[in-house]
Amino acid sequence: MIADDDEKWLAAATSAVKQNAFYMQRAIDSNNLKDALKFSAQMLGELRTSKLSPHKYYELYIRASDELRSSEMFFRDETARGCSISELYELVQHAGNILPRLYLLCTIGSVYIKSKDVTAKDILKDLVEMCRAVQHPLRGLFLRSYLAQVTRDKLPSIGSELDGDAETRMDALEFVLQNFTEMNKLWVRMQHQGPAREKEKREKERNELRDLVGKNLHILGQLEGVDLVVYRDTVLPRILEQVVNCKDELAQCYLMDCIIQVFPDDFHLQTLDVLLGACPQLQPSVDIKTVLSGLMERLSNYAASSVEALPNFLQVDAFSKLNDAIGKVVEAQVDLSASASVTLYLFLLKFTLHVHSDRLDYVDQVLGSCVSQLSATGKLCDDKASKQIVAFLSAPLEKYNDVVTILKLTNYPRVMEYLDHDTNKAMAIIIIQSILKNDTRIATADEVDALFELIKGLIKDFDGLTDNDEVDEEDFQEEQNSVARLVHFLYNDDPEEMSKIIFRVRKHILTGGPKRLPLTIPPLVFSALKLIRRLRGGDENPFGDDTSTPQKILQLLTETVEVLSDVSASELALRLYLQCAQAANDCELETVAYEFFTKAYLLYEEEISDSKAQVTALRLIIGTLQRMRVFNVENRDILTQKATGYSAKLLKKPDQCRAVYECAHLYWVEEGENLKDGERVVLCLKRAQKIADAVQKMTNASRGASSTGSVSLYVELLNKYLYFLEKGNPQVTGETIQGLAELIKIEKGESGAGSFITSTLRYMEFQRQQEDGGMNEKYQKIKMEWFE
């Protein structure tokens, strides 16, 4: 309903403006000064209304001011035809109503100034004083806006036709400052016009009119003669006095932003202490972070665009002033939220990283100031504040792209302490991703300690939290995989320092829970094994440090892998024991290697009960043992016999058969003359064949069952015999192979192993036809007629 009334009143007023403008224009065309003034005053009388909202009043004002341009040109033409401008100036003062009178005075006054018949100072002073007669906030604000508009090109400014001495420029400056002061007072008073229930609406309307006031500051920024001295001694103090004294949230926030955006960067830099001194005096409700962030952003861009400006930042000690100002603002505004405080320090940090990126002490000081502020709040529960902290901590990472540099900041981990568990982990992931992305090497044990202090949220449980079923498994796996990848970036070419790194990493990783250790211990073990292989072949104690020898590191790994047994990761522990045994073999440490195998065997016997897991583990044991060269005959026999015994005890007969014939490789090692026992090889193969026979009998006993599995076992055994035949085992004869081949012929029937058999026979025939290498002689002992 109110909006409809607004439209009706605006339509009526606009119609009246158009009608009077028409008659005014007709009078101008006929050079009738009296009627032109009469209809101009009647047209401007429509601006006396109090019915319109500020938005609608603005539309009416624009229409009326546009029509006044014709009057201004008419008055200029009248003076050119000999009419006295001073008489015109006096004549319009007889208008009946004050508002039309002042609009006409401003219009003729602008022509008066341009005629140069009188000093601009007198006219400007007269106009700005007489405009005080209108104290209605809305009408007075638009009247003074019109005054600023028509006199803008009459002031001695950049691009102006008028010029003047220093005194004239100061007069123009005083005029603009006085007009600004009065307009701001009117603008602030608008909030008190009307009932309290409509305050929010009025604030919205005031916000729409803010540019009318800010226009004066734009004019000030363009005036000639406003140099650094004038700005520092006159302009800035006068503006800030008005800003602080008005005690209005909207006005203070907008005007501070105007000051920052309008005046040059070097002015702000040289008057930083004055501008910042006003910030703690602003209303507590003012969004001070927006003000200061705008200032620091401008100064940062200024520093980035001009290398010559950097010494000025150091000369005026801009960093200290900004840091102190933010501290005072936070102290003065007791109700300032944690997120707002962190945002202030975030912008200060960004400023520091842009302007003083080489000063880590400045960066650390900002972090310390933030810690001091957060100490009063404790752990952050506000999501917005937590996000700001993450952005705050990410800024140095993005600037330096080097975590090693971040580790030098003593206050960095102190800031992280205020993050909740989930956000702490998210920040730790960001740190790790930075290392991985930038290929950063963490090269000392002290750096490792500092790094793991930062990412401890991923390494261990804290704040009473434990790994539980509610944790998203996919996210957890991804987090721990990041930690595992990180371990490989902890490296130093110096073996002594690398040894220290290994010991430090172990200390941190072992603080993890049972879900973490199976994912984080393996990379530690392999990193240590890499170091061990670098140390082999050197002196027994190359550093004079017992902790740096292969024996000590392997002992450390023994204790480390044992932890996996306690957290139900026996299969993984067995794999790692076998890896350590190979490293001990490379270092020719027989006792240590034997101990690792013993531990692997104990795990196999006591912890691994699943049949499939047993098959996999046994294959790993046999494969690793086959590569060992460090054992004497006695130790090797003990370990080999145990492996063979385990093979015969597997749950399923086919698995038994395959494991037993794999054990044959333990008795025939190509690289060692003393590790070739043909008789035992054949013994293992015959034992495997007996198991295959048992499988075949069981298959035959099961009516309708396919014999594919048992025949496949025979073919696999045939391939093993062929392998050892080619390797020169004298105990493998053509008759033995011939007998197995005949058995396959009998049992194959309609089994599904036909393609396997065919491939094997083709290979045998191929070798029989070879002329070089002596293979044909070995294969000539085998008769192939059985296949025909």
From TrEMBL:
* Predominant location category: cytoplasm
Topological relation to the membrane, as annotated: Peripheral membrane protein
Where does it reside? Cytoplasm; Endosome membrane; Golgi apparatus, trans-Golgi network membrane; Prevacuolar compartment membrane
- Under the cellular component aspect of Gene Ontology, which terms does the record hold? endosome membrane; Golgi apparatus
Q: Name one GO biological process term.
A: protein transport
List, alphabetically, the Pfam families matched.
Vps35
Keywords assigned by UniProt, alphabetized = Cytoplasm, Endosome, Golgi apparatus, Membrane, Protein transport, Transport
Looking up InterPro entries in the UniProt record yields:
Vps35 (IPR005378), Vps35_C (IPR042491)
Protein family per UniProt: Belongs to the VPS35 family.
Q: What exactly does this protein do? A: Plays a role in vesicular protein sorting.
Q: What is this protein called?
A: Vacuolar protein sorting-associated protein 35
